[in-house]
Design brief:
alpha/beta; six-stranded mixed sheet; five-stranded mixed sheet; 19 strands; globular
């Protein structure tokens, strides 16, 4: 199997550079056990939406905005006003051939041209032969990858200890399926390939006649065609680089995909040679946004400006009266948008309650080992490495050993049920025994226990100075340095659902896809430590002797809160905690009632708990659907205002922080804001391009390798959100809007941070996020305009723009 091409030889360094650049265009995929939201446009944030649209159209026919009808409907309903369209036109970073709002509306009413997607060799061969080669490639690579990357799901484990390239080569050289389907001599072709994937890439590039200018988008296209397998390989690279190492898995996958291209080209060159030559030339062209892409970008900006106008009106409303008395309780919740509804309900139930918002890992970058487990769980944002280790081992070795034996027996029993030699006999013999369990589970009667390991502890124990320093850092980051209540609740969050492969995605994104009770319990123990409190006095923070920190877990599916008050000596606060439980129960009932209004088929708040235990329920909760804003400001700016569970709320007092050089502001803008952007853009991508950035229909999901899901029984592994997470069956429940970040802080401080963090600045300069500075009364006063410039948010600004584009 040989191919004659023009003689093009590229050095290995140029190929490596191109391959690495293509890998950076692929977002990582965390495995299901620790699933976190990821920005699907992670590799494209150095360009605008229109530029990204041009790239993704070329490599995959992927839209980056909603259909034009979505915007037209909102214009017709006056949700998007002429002011919004004018402002978006004026702010466009490109030069559209549109002079005024009327021209924009006329363009919006026209059907855009079809996305100009370049074909791969496999697609050209498919057209020429009538054989679905892209589907065959996806199937054969997927069958191998499911075994190679398996995380414990498979009963028969694939051989370990080889690189992905070496393992695939051994597998594919004995796989006769491609030859049966019509690719002559493929097994031998694989066996004769070089042992080094870089050499395979070099040979394929030469045989395909590819010049250096074509490699960037062609390599990106090939990795994209592998679906979530390439994303999981990108995760392996992400994880390795975070630990200051390296990983070549994604390069191996590129070599595998290129070898398929080379083999198909060699067999079909006569039929596809001319088309392939034109495709090569098209790949060499510079990427530039199209006029249609620019129009769509402006319409998207206008939709976001309309939402920002509504947010500004909400924040500009009259502030509630503030009570300066000591609060009955203070309750710190995760910044997650689901907490906004519960916080508002809790404050309404008891006006003497004050709530705070803080990232759910509570400032502790912990690598944790649960009770009777040796698995190290990274309970921290995936952007960082752990700085402390902890465990819930307890002091009773006998209990630990008994729990391990029980877990091993359960795993062995599960494997016996599924094994090839015993599964059918097992069903015949033991099936009737499971009738009771099936009935209980089918009727939602089975209990749903909350995490209840022994109290976690730092392992090894931290020295006193480190404990004091950690406590000070967290309290200052929470803007909680005085005015302590008798009870301070630290509420992490998680979700208790059944029959959901993506269950960990409903947990805390700031905790690496785990529930947040471990971090909350660790922090409560730290802040109740008498020696730590003595040390805090010397650092300007005095915690009253009668203040008790209590960890809790907010179940966002049922809106019930579990207290871990047994971790601490709470006898003196028994009456307080009894009252706290009553308030939490009442707030949960109010929250469930509000959530029931949005969930399909939910009659009232009593239905919410049942949904969590229902095997067939594809929408136990809406998670973060609808998220559209991130607000970092004192709670007084948002208290008493309904943000409809669509805003991340982070407490922040810039006056305290400014005295110390705005370190907390820098942390907020470089960590929680970035995590929130990943969440927002995952929902955005899963809505505008569900075929690429969504995982499809939940009803068809099959877990593969313990990593991700297939939609059906084959094809590429899928990443992103299920369709049911953004759509209720009749309409979208998530408005795909890029996040509006609103921070009450001096513009100069934010500008300085942007100047020092290029990656964060790119998110705002290219409008993957919008940035606003709030004034001292909580109003949106200034908009970041890009290039470290700001513009005032006021009616006169819109008037000037209307005049400018008229």
């Amino acid at each position: 199997m040989k191919a004659d091409t023009k003689n093009i030889s590229l050095d290995l360094q140029a190929l490596k550079t191109a391959g690495d650049a293509a890998a950076r265009q692929i977002p990582p995929l965390w495995p299901l056990a620790s699933y976190v939201a990821v920005n699907p446009f992670l590799g494209q944030t150095n360009g605008t939406l229109a530029e990204t649209g041009a790239r993704l159209a070329r490599v995959g026919g992927i839209p980056v905005t909603m259909p034009r009808s979505w915007y037209l409907d909102r214009i017709a309903a006056a949700e998007i006003k002429d002011d919004d369209l004018a402002a978006a036109l004026s702010a466009s970073p490109h030069s559209p051939k549109l002079g005024h709002v009327a021209a924009l509306k006329a363009a919006a009413a026209e059907e855009p041209s079809a996305l100009a997607t370049l074909p791969t060799v496999a697609e050209l061969a498919s057209r020429a032969s009538g054989i679905d080669w892209p589907g065959i490639v996806a199937d054969r690579v997927g069958v191998w990858a499911g075994g190679y990357f398996d995380r414990g799901q498979a009963l028969w484990v694939a051989p370990r200890g080889r690189s992905a390239w070496s393992a695939w080569r051994a597998y594919a050289s004995h796989d006769l399926t491609p030859e049966i389907m019509g690719l002559d001599g493929f097994a031998a072709f694989v066996a004769d390939a070089a042992e080094k994937p870089t050499e395979v890439i070099a040979r394929a590039v030469e045989r395909l006649g590819l010049g250096e200018a074509a490699l960037a988008t062609y390599f990106h296209q090939l990795l994209l065609s592998l679906g979530a397998w390439a994303q999981f390989a990108r995760y392996e690279l992400w994880r390795a680089e975070l630990a200051e190492g390296s990983d070549t898995t994604i390069t191996d996958l590129l070599a595998i995909r290129l070898l398929w291209e080379e083999a198909l080209f060699a067999q079909h060159e006569t039929a596809i040679g001319d088309e392939w030559a034109a495709t090569r030339t098209a790949h060499e062209a510079a990427i530039a946004p199209t006029e249609d892409g620019i129009v769509d970008e402006i319409l998207q900006e206008a939709a976001e400006r309309a939402a920002q106008r509504g947010l500004a009106d909400t924040l500009a409303g009259p502030a509630p009266d503030t009570n300066e008395d000591r609060p009955a309780i203070q309750a710190a919740f995760c910044i997650d948008v689901r907490s906004e509804v519960f916080r508002r309900a809790l404050e309404a139930v008891d006006p003497s309650t004050r709530t705070l918002g803080f990232a759910g890992f509570f400032g502790l970058f912990a690598k944790h080992r649960r009770f009777a487990s040796d698995v190290e769980e990274l309970r921290l944002p995936v952007l960082f490495n752990p700085t402390v280790t902890s465990s819930s081992g307890g002091d009773n070795e006998a209990d630990d050993l008994a729990a391990r034996y029980k877990a091993r027996a359960k795993r062995a029993w599960g494997r016996f049920k599924l094994a090839a030699v015993s599964s059918f006999a097992f069903v015949e013999a033991m099936g009737p025994v499971y009738i009771g369990k099936l009935v209980r589970d089918g009727l939602g009667l089975s209990p749903t226990p909350v995490p209840n390991d022994p109290p976690p502890r730092f392992d090894p124990e931290l020295d006193l100075e480190t404990r004091i320093g950690a406590a000070e850092t967290v309290l200052r980051a929470m803007s909680l340095t005085d005015g302590f209540a008798r009870v301070v609740l630290l509420a992490g969050h998680g979700a208790n659902v059944v029959n959901n492969p993506h269950a960990s995605g409903l947990h805390c994104g700031a905790c690496g896809g785990y529930s947040g009770e471990v971090n909350a319990r660790l922090l409560a123990g730290l802040l109740n430590d008498g020696e730590v409190r003595e040390g805090l006095v010397g650092r300007g923070i005095t915690v009253p002797e009668d203040t008790l920190f209590v960890a809790a877990l907010h179940d966002t599916t049922t809106d019930r809160v579990t207290l871990y008050d047994r971790d601490v000596a709470a006898d003196a606060h028994a009456a307080d905690l009894k009252q706290v439980r009553q308030w939490l129960e009442a707030a949960g009932k109010v929250t469930r009632g509000e959530r029931a209004l949005r969930l399909p088929r939910a009659g009232d708040e009593r239905d919410i708990g049942m949904r969590a235990r229902d095997w067939a329920e594809v929408r136990p909760e809406w998670a973060l659907a609808g998220c559209k804003a991130f607000i970092a400001a004192p709670r007084t700016r948002t208290a008493g205002r309904s943000l409809e569970g669509r805003a991340f709320l982070h407490d922040y007092d810039w006056k305290q922080d400014g005295e110390r050089g705005f370190g907390v502001l820098e942390l907020i803008m470089t960590a929680p804001v970035v995590v929130a952007s990943w969440i927002s853009l995952q929902y955005y991508g899963s809505t505008v391009a569900p075929g690429t950035f969504g995982s499809g229909n939940k009803l068809l999901h099959n877990v593969v390798g313990g990593i991700g899901v297939l939609e059906g029984n084959g094809g590429n592994m899928r990443a992103g959100l299920p369709w049911q997470s953004v759509h209720d069956g009749e309409d979208y429940v998530h408005d795909p809007l890029r996040l509006s970040v609103c921070i009450e802080a001096p513009r100069e401080a934010m500008t300085d941070i942007l100047e020092r963090h290029e990656g964060v600045r790119a998110l705002f300069d290219n409008r993957w996020l919008h940035l606003f500075a709030m004034d001292g009364e909580g109003r949106l006063a200034w908009r970041y305009a890009g290039d470290l410039e700001w513009e005032p948010v006021e009616p006169a600004t819109v008037a000037r723009r209307l005049k400018a584009v008229a």
